[in-house]
Specification:
The chain contains 9 helices and 9 strands. The chain is α/β, with parallel strands linked by helices. A hairpin with a 2-residue loop joins β5 (145-161) and β6.
Length: 307
């Protein structure tokens, strides 16, 4: 097969957006508003018992009702059908069901463990992981814009407060496999009613600062960015000693991580260094590849291969 070499062009890419938030926070509403701003034909893969139909007044869109079991293969089939039908924007509402819904990966894990591994769930991950990965790859390789929603819940931990034990809120944790957010161009966390969102990952440079409302204009802004109209301008950094030191420190942080969640601050920092011009795209890619490989390694360590 011939190898094709082309010039890098942002308009050749498609949006990969993840909207997360608690149940009822406005994820579906926000996804449809952004899709309207992006333009083109829109389809919603609805796992929420037709909840997207409640927003038919916002924009004209079609629906694929995805019922249980929520296996990765059924998601892949729905996305493929949407692609074949020529939709410009595919909203997957939500990815959480593929992970923890009826017939999703966690439920499949128990069934496969009982059927094939004498109840050993650790060994069963050798079957589940490729199936989840195939679903994620389908999201990433789609020729359409993809907006995925995911439920999140408050993550807490017991901490030592001057000798006294107390429970502290650590933020919102996406109900999906660890590391999914690293795959997206943009991750927005919806924080409360009113459809305001904070950014947890941003390769566009458009969403820094205070929480902002999600509107049709959000989609239009992203569309302009994808078309090259709002490029983040910054000088291309040289491999100076300072930059090499930054990269070395980042590599150490990545290598020392013990859990996938430990890498979230590093991922945000790497993205910020690209946006402010400290890192070149090639340097950013080097560190991002290291981070993704570390996430895969940490997940693999939790999921021993079949023996």
């Amino acid at each position: 097969m011939a190898v094709v070499i082309r010039k890098a062009k942002r308009s050749a890419t498609k949006l990969r957006l993840l909207l997360s938030g608690p149940s009822g926070s406005g994820k579906t509403w926000g996804a449809i508003q952004i899709a309207k701003g992006l333009g083109g034909r829109v389809v919603v893969i609805d796992t929420e018992e037709g909840s997207s139909d409640l927003y038919d007044q916002l924009h004209a869109f079609d629906v694929i009702d995805l019922k249980p079991p929520f296996t990765p293969e059924r998601y892949v089939e729905c996305i493929a059908s949407a692609e074949e039908a020529g939709y410009d924007v595919i909203i997957v509402d939500s990815v959480t069901h593929c992970w923890s819904g009826s017939g999703g990966c966690l439920e499949l894990l128990d069934d496969i463990a009982k059927a094939q591994f004498r109840g050993n769930t650790w060994s069963a991950w050798s079957v589940i992981t490729p199936r989840w990965r195939a679903f994620v790859d389908k999201l990433l390789r789609s020729p359409a814009h993809v907006i995925a929603t995911g439920r999140s819940k408050t993550e807490t931990a017991q901490v030592d407060d001057h000798g006294k034990k107390s429970v502290a809120k650590l933020g919102m944790k996406l109900e999906a496999r660890d590391g999914l957010e690293y795959e997206f161009t943009l991750c927005l966390d919806i924080v409360h009613a009113g459809h305001f969102a904070t950014v947890s990952k941003d390769r566009t440079g458009l969403f820094s600062g205070d929480p902002k409302p999600i509107t049709v204009e959000t989609g239009k802004t992203l569309s302009a960015w994808l078309a090259g109209g709002q490029a983040v301008t910054a000088p291309t950094p040289d491999a100076t000693p300072d930059v090499m030191k930054i990269m070395g420190n980042a590599s150490k942080v990545i290598a020392s991580a013990l859990e996938p969640a430990d890498l979230k601050p590093a991922g945000r920092r790497i993205d910020a260094l690209l946006q402010d011009g400290t890192l070149s795209p090639a340097q950013w890619e080097t560190l991002t590849d290291q981070l993704l490989l570390k996430v895969d390694a940490l997940n693999a360590a939790k999921e021993p291969a079949n023996v």
